């Protein structure tokens, strides 16, 4: 057949009359009764968008029927008669949460043209348009009667999934991204080929947003501002904060949602204490942390931007920690700390590793923050990914190119394995009057997963190395959701959690306290 046109339109009674005889012939082994015109009229009146026809060269080739149901009232253990109210369709609810597939039919002469796939794709688009949780239907397994004496329905389905047995209907549904979730006995009366067993098939709408009573906005395109900070000598704290405010002001003018500062960006303030030991100087630097955090919190509100403070030394219970603060633009604040300290940090400064890490809710979704060396430990970010993290921020401080490469390469690996964005920002320049902080090497970057919707090399944007500058980058959160479900590889979903797991040990929560 020479195909000139394939068209999907709303189903009408005239079109149904064209395909009804063919449906009756195909389903005669199930029931002598077939759809009546009255039933089709009812479906069209209740839900016209759910009843569609597909035409080839203007000729009716098939149709698809569906309703919307409040799936919470039925659950997974239902029959076809129950979900359709014996095909009266009183179960259709315009305010329901699930699209339920009733019928997809293609005339024999048009099979092999993948018309069924087009109808399934239409249903998926409709589901997304109506903000429904997903698509559900009871699938037939018409070849099961040939194996029913040898295998249970569960065994049969397992073998079909492993491609050891072919089932034309089940295989087709699997190929269209529907996943089996349950076997339902006595699902469809009269289906002798399937021995009345139905396979509950599901497709999840990754764009579904649960309705809320109060208006909320969660951004899908998130703009990041990365500060590649120049280490230079400052006279006092006011000079440092003047430079900090300049960067925040500049990034906010580009309507950025986040601004990320590097690790220990306030280190130049140690120049006044160079006469002390390294450990003594950094403890003096810790005294500036409280006023810096208070000022950053004010800036977050006044400039309407979420500020990630990089990190600063902080004294707590007589211990010295490397900590930072997420200052949200709504005025709230969260603390994070460096879990792993390097041998040099422990030896020279006496830094202690932190005891807790977490993901944070923001108006742009969940984020994670790991300070420098922490990104080289994949367990932390994997736990954060399991908690729903979309963007991982990594403030860092490295002196040499090989130290930078460790952070850079591990950060990119975290983006791939956790299917998230990773933003890293560091400092450049020299501090000849600050012991143990002589030289810096940095290149700020934003990494992505490596798949068709992302850059082939997994780098969304990168700054010029060793130059003071700002990097402004947009990331699309919806692309992550698509990757999670439909990526060429699905790292998070394909983990063998039956043989290994990564878990966070429980820790008693502590109330947030400002430093000092």
Task: Write a concise keyword list for the protein shown above.
516 residues, 22 strands, seven-stranded mixed β-sheet, alpha+beta
β-strand amount: 15-25%
Strand count: 22
The shape is elongated
Average pLDDT taken over every residue: 92
The structure class reads alpha+beta
Largest sheet: 9 strands, mixed
Distance between the termini: 80 Å
Unreliable parts: none
| Estimated helix fraction | 25-40%
User: How many helices does DSSP assign?
Assistant: 13
User: How large, in whole angstroms, is the Cα Rg?
Assistant: 30 Å
Describe what you observe in this structure.
There is one protein chain. The protein has 516 residues and is of the alpha+beta class. It has 13 helices and 22 strands. The chain has helices at residues 13-26, 37-46, 80-84, 115-129, 153-161, 168-175, 237-253, 278-285, 289-302, 343-349, 378-386, 401-418, 477-486; strands at 6-10, 52-56, 59-69, 98-106, 134-139, 179-184, 198-204, 221-231, 258-260, 306-308, 312-316, 319-327, 333-337, 359-362, 365-369, 391-395, 421-425, 427-430, 439-440, 445-447, 459-462, 469-476. The strands form three sheets. Strands 8, 9, 10, 11, 12, 13, 18, 19 and 22 form a nine-stranded mixed beta sheet that branches. Strands 1-2-3-4-5-7-6 form a seven-stranded mixed beta sheet, sandwiched between helices. The protein has a six-stranded mixed beta sheet with strand order 14-15-16-17-20-21, with helices on one face. Helix 11 runs parallel beside helix 12 (401-418). The protein starts with 5 loop residues before the first strand and ends in a 30-residue tail after the last helix.
């Amino acid at each position: 057949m020479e195909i000139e046109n394939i068209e999907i339109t709303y189903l009408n009674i005239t079109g149904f009359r064209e395909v009804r005889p063919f449906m009756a012939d195909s389903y005669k082994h199930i029931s002598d009764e077939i759809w009546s015109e009255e039933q089709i009229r009812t479906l069209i009146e209740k839900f016209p968008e759910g009843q569609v026809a597909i035409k080839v060269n203007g000729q009716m080739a098939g149709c698809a029927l569906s309703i919307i149901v409040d799936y919470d009232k039925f659950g997974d253990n239902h029959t076809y008669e129950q979900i359709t109210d014996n095909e009266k369709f009183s179960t259709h609810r315009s305010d329901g949460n699930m699209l339920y597939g009733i019928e997809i039919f293609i005339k024999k002469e048009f099979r092999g043209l993948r018309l069924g796939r087009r109808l399934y794709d239409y249903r998926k688009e409709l589901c997304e348009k109506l903000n429904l949780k997903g698509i559900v239907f009871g699938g037939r397994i018409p070849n099961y009667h040939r194996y029913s004496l040898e295998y249970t329905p569960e065994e049969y389905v397992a073998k079909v999934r492993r491609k050891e047995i072919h089932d034309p209907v089940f295989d087709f549904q699997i190929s269209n991204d529907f996943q089996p979730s349950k076997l339902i006995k006595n699902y469809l009366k009269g289906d002798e080929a399937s021995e009345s067993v139905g396979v509950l098939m599901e497709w999840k709408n990754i764009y579904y947003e649960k309705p809320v009573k109060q208006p909320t906005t969660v951004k899908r395109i998130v703009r990041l501002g990365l500060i590649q900070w120049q280490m230079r000598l400052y006279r006092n704290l006011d000079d440092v904060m003047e430079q900090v405010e300049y960067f925040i002001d500049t990034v906010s003018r580009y309507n950025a949602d986040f601004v990320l500062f590097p690790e220990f960006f306030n280190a130049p303030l140690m120049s006044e204490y160079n006469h002390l030991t390294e450990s003594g100087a950094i403890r003096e630097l810790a005294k500036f942390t409280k006023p810096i955090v208070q000022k950053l919190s004010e800036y977050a509100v006044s400039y309407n931007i979420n500020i990630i403070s990089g990190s600063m030394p902080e004294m707590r219970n007589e211990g010295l920690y490397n900590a930072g603060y997420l200052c949200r633009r709504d005025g709230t604040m969260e603390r994070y700390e460096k879990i792993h300290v390097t041998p040099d940090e422990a030896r020279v400064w006496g830094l202690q590793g932190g005891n807790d890490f977490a993901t944070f809710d923001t108006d742009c979704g969940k984020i994670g923050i790991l300070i420098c060396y922490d990104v080289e430990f994949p367990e932390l970010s994997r736990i954060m990914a399991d908690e729903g993290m979309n963007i991982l921020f990594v403030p860092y401080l490295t002196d040499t190119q090989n130290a930078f490469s460790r952070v850079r390469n591990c950060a990119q690996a975290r983006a791939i394995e956790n299917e998230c964005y990773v933003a890293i920002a560091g400092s450049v320049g020299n501090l000849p009057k600050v012991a143990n902080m002589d030289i810096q090497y940095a290149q700020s970057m934003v990494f992505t997963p490596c798949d068709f919707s992302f850059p082939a090399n997994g780098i969304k944007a990168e700054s010029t190395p060793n130059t003071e500058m700002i990097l402004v980058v947009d990331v699309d959160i919806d692309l992550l959701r698509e990757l999670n479900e439909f990526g060429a590889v699905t790292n998070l979903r394909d983990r063998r959690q039956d043989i290994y797991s990564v878990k966070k040990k429980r820790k008693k929560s502590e109330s947030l306290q400002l430093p000092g």
